[in-house]
């Protein structure tokens, strides 16, 4: 589904990604771990197409297509979803409006009919119920005055609604208490299927207790320095990143 | 110099011609270019006006000659040559169109983008037999379509072109015209008093709640024709009316002057809700073309508990100079001003309000949302004056500015004059930018860059958009998006 080949990227003048190679097949969940500043968030932004994150060499194929040639909204409509580490506030825009606009924009892009307000309400109520999110959140402006936990739940709700093919989770666990963490993990696990894939970026092992990855990679100084299965995460938890980087 | 001389000569020759018989020229569809006493007489004669109105126009014209063009607003433009404008042009007697298929596709595109209902498009475009909302459509200075009159008449509501009101209800017009905006008021209002050609008149009798929203659509379409509309609305004791005014204009190359006057009179326990959506041609991205909009809008709350609310969405015009105001004379009267002003590319907007508190316990609310993009300059200018007798009067002002890009400007100029010991005046102001982070967040959810911008800006304006009547709210939201096209990327 996703094929990253020798990816180099800069932010400003600084090279952050220094040759990433990674292959993710449909049905797989990969975790990327690594110390602060290793380039984890940069990788997720490059994949989502954020301005200012410039690819200097290498290529990324998504479902066989050149991902880097697509605009951020095209990538989203083609099924890439990024759950933000720091979800952004949009004052005055009700979450329900935001979700409906996004949902319909993606449908429109794919040539599917847009849904009306009533249909949408029914759909979103199903999702909030599944995820145990209060409907009250839908009336509030996007992320404005949300607690850290509420913001992350809102990300999971958006993901549940948009049903992406490739889930990118950028430190979704940071700032979450254990209950919220379970809800977030539950959201991902519900979507897990042989057709979908996920890339989970995390600093700590604990999220991986709830979303069990098929592969774990260690990112340090802009490169993947080690790959393995779930046990690698546990090993890291025990020994720390320093031991690995030195190795 | 040469051009000016030429103009002077032309004017002289025109005046000459008139000396010998402008009456025979009354059949002409367009008055000769330029302004003079004869032109004022020509307009008045064209409209078959009574003597008192001609006299009033002439007083205004003579006063105007003594006035100086105001320069205090934060707008810059080449000096207007008032002798290079046609002050009267009747509508071309176009054949009635059979269907929308015969309408200029460019115009239809604008309607479509705005989501104007088909039926209404037909009325706007002048399709035969199209009647829906009470639209008093003003095309080229003269109303060519007035609908739903009968239903309104049943309630005793008078809603008609002002020229008809002059003919059919002269006592009302004479009593109220110029009573809120006197002919000496300001340069443009005085000019308007001398040469106004049309506009709407509305009278709501005592205790009547107007059964429908009243709309007026303006469209300017003859090159070089300045529009001088005059609107007069009177709400008698205990009555209510909601008035919608919306404008679309096709592309133009010439600068077009527009100097309208709107007067509202609100008696005891009455209420007028006046909503405007204005999207006149703002000029291209270099500021070429575009309309100069110098408007005087003022409401007088004459009785106790009278209420007026101005809601405006200003997105068009090259230059906007507009301060819908409230004179709160009656005790407990209420004035509200909700405004969205969007300036993109080279647009300049200097807009705000005046709240003049005279009566006891009067209260006013100002919510102003200014959005600047491109190289535009957007100024909020507001006056809150608490008179000596305005005991316990209250004002609350919120003035928010949003910047898109780094080449535009937002300015806030509040004036507060308080002569009352017991009055309360509050002013809040914020300035913010649309962040790259917000845009990226929306785009990552599937919205295009422009859709993202429209969504964010609509969120910023939400408090004001909510004040618009339902009929206008959807159109206004789309307009916000359209106005900012090209402001990103």
From TrEMBL, chain A:
<feature type="domain" description="ABC transporter">
    <location>
        <begin position="2"/>
        <end position="246"/>
    </location>
</feature>
<dbReference type="Pfam" id="PF00005">
    <property type="entry name" value="ABC_tran"/>
</dbReference>
<dbReference type="GO" id="GO:0005524">
    <property type="term" value="F:ATP binding"/>
</dbReference>
<dbReference type="InterPro" id="IPR003439">
    <property type="entry name" value="ABC_transporter-like_ATP-bd"/>
</dbReference>
<dbReference type="InterPro" id="IPR003593">
    <property type="entry name" value="AAA+_ATPase"/>
</dbReference>
<dbReference type="InterPro" id="IPR017871">
    <property type="entry name" value="ABC_transporter-like_CS"/>
</dbReference>
<protein>
    <submittedName>
        <fullName>Fe-S cluster assembly ATPase SufC</fullName>
    </submittedName>
</protein>
<dbReference type="InterPro" id="IPR010230">
    <property type="entry name" value="FeS-cluster_ATPase_SufC"/>
</dbReference>
<keyword id="KW-0547">Nucleotide-binding</keyword>
<comment type="similarity">
    <text>Belongs to the ABC transporter superfamily. Ycf16 family.</text>
</comment>
<dbReference type="InterPro" id="IPR027417">
    <property type="entry name" value="P-loop_NTPase"/>
</dbReference>
<dbReference type="GO" id="GO:0016887">
    <property type="term" value="F:ATP hydrolysis activity"/>
</dbReference>
<keyword id="KW-0067">ATP-binding</keyword>
TrEMBL record, chain B:
<dbReference type="Pfam" id="PF01458">
    <property type="entry name" value="SUFBD_core"/>
</dbReference>
<protein>
    <submittedName>
        <fullName>Fe-S cluster assembly protein SufB</fullName>
    </submittedName>
</protein>
<feature type="domain" description="SUF system FeS cluster assembly SufBD core">
    <location>
        <begin position="218"/>
        <end position="460"/>
    </location>
</feature>
<dbReference type="InterPro" id="IPR000825">
    <property type="entry name" value="SUF_FeS_clus_asmbl_SufBD_core"/>
</dbReference>
<dbReference type="InterPro" id="IPR045595">
    <property type="entry name" value="SufBD_N"/>
</dbReference>
<dbReference type="InterPro" id="IPR037284">
    <property type="entry name" value="SUF_FeS_clus_asmbl_SufBD_sf"/>
</dbReference>
<dbReference type="Pfam" id="PF19295">
    <property type="entry name" value="SufBD_N"/>
</dbReference>
<dbReference type="InterPro" id="IPR010231">
    <property type="entry name" value="SUF_FeS_clus_asmbl_SufB"/>
</dbReference>
<feature type="domain" description="SUF system FeS cluster assembly SufBD N-terminal">
    <location>
        <begin position="153"/>
        <end position="210"/>
    </location>
</feature>
<dbReference type="GO" id="GO:0016226">
    <property type="term" value="P:iron-sulfur cluster assembly"/>
</dbReference>
<comment type="similarity">
    <text>Belongs to the iron-sulfur cluster assembly SufBD family.</text>
</comment>
<dbReference type="InterPro" id="IPR055346">
    <property type="entry name" value="Fe-S_cluster_assembly_SufBD"/>
</dbReference>
